[in-house]
Amino acid sequence: MVVATPTPLLRRGTKKTAAFGVPTIDLSEDKSIASEMIVKACEDYGFFKVVNHGVPKKVIARMEREAVDFFSHPIAQKGRAGPAAPFGYGCKNIGFNGDKGDLEYILLEANPISLSQRAKTMSNDPSTFSAVTNDYVSAVRKLACDILELVADGLWMENKSIFSKLISNSQNDSCLRVNHYPPFIAPNNNYNHNDNDDEELNNHWDPSSELVEEGLHISPLIPAVGSKSRVGFGEHTDPQILTILRSNDVSGLQICSHDGFWIPVPPDPNEFFVFVGDSFQALTNGRFTSVRHRVVAINSWKSRMSMMYFAAPPLDAWITAPPQINNSISSNIYRPFTWGNFKQIVYSLRLADSRLDYFTNHAQ
Fold first, then answer.
1. 212 domain residue, yes or no
2. pLDDT tens digits for 176-214?
3. For residue 58, what are the domain limits?
4. Which single residue of 76, 174, 345, 363 has CA 20 to 30 Å from 197?
5. pLDDT tens digits for 251-264?
């Protein structure tokens, strides 16, 4: 089902914020109904949640345990899996162009050979880490393919696999990212915590002291008392076709609506959130719009952890809208480009930049 009636928009000072009912699609519904709802959600928000998605709970739980175990290690041990260039372990730095966030992360190529190699630096039990990660990647890739085939059906495409074949291709360039955001306790919050909260505080992650001991100098990830709230991951769109996100029960994710309102998204550790990416915007000739999103710091005794599967085509795959879509619009908004071309542009720009601008036909 789709939550039909958003709550009223709320304005706070000069900043725009909003609350709304997250479009929620039940994948056990009749396919014609689900496909219509997905297309509408992609058009209206570029974002939705799926329930009854078919990914086994044990597959999700095992992946989360492996990630929690990795991030619980001392910074020196985690550092052996980095620096991220772009794959591997990263801390604070996002990309290569000066963007920073209050997080640590791992970025992995979503293919068995690469995962097997990376597992040797990620875990004391590489074979288990590799098997668990492969199981998770396979499950969410299937989910992404199912969604893309429903989209093709909803757009009345003759070939229902026209989008899904791009990521089911054995040469696909998809990747898996796991972000870990430290707890953030606001000063003077007068919070009455219990023993469980003390346990969370004992796990309060601040790598700066350990980094100094290792002879590395880095500004503390946790701000000093009295500092303002932080940005965990700055605003951006995802360049790939689709993003399949699952997080724990800690909030912080926000999406930006088409009219510029930042919308807090309540976490749901049992379900998946789906983002339209830049490549899907181009594949639909602008009918879908990639959704801008960010993660902000929140008052919590618990860390936030999210896992994103970025569904991408092979590097040599051409990104251009199919004729059936182009025929319904007067002209092509974007010049055709390969995913490899687009990826080069992505790496050359800042996080918040609009990469599709480089492929827009000037006549538009």
1. no
2. 999 999 887 654 444 444 444 433 333 333 433 333 333
3. 24-182+227-359
4. 76
5. 999 999 878 889 99
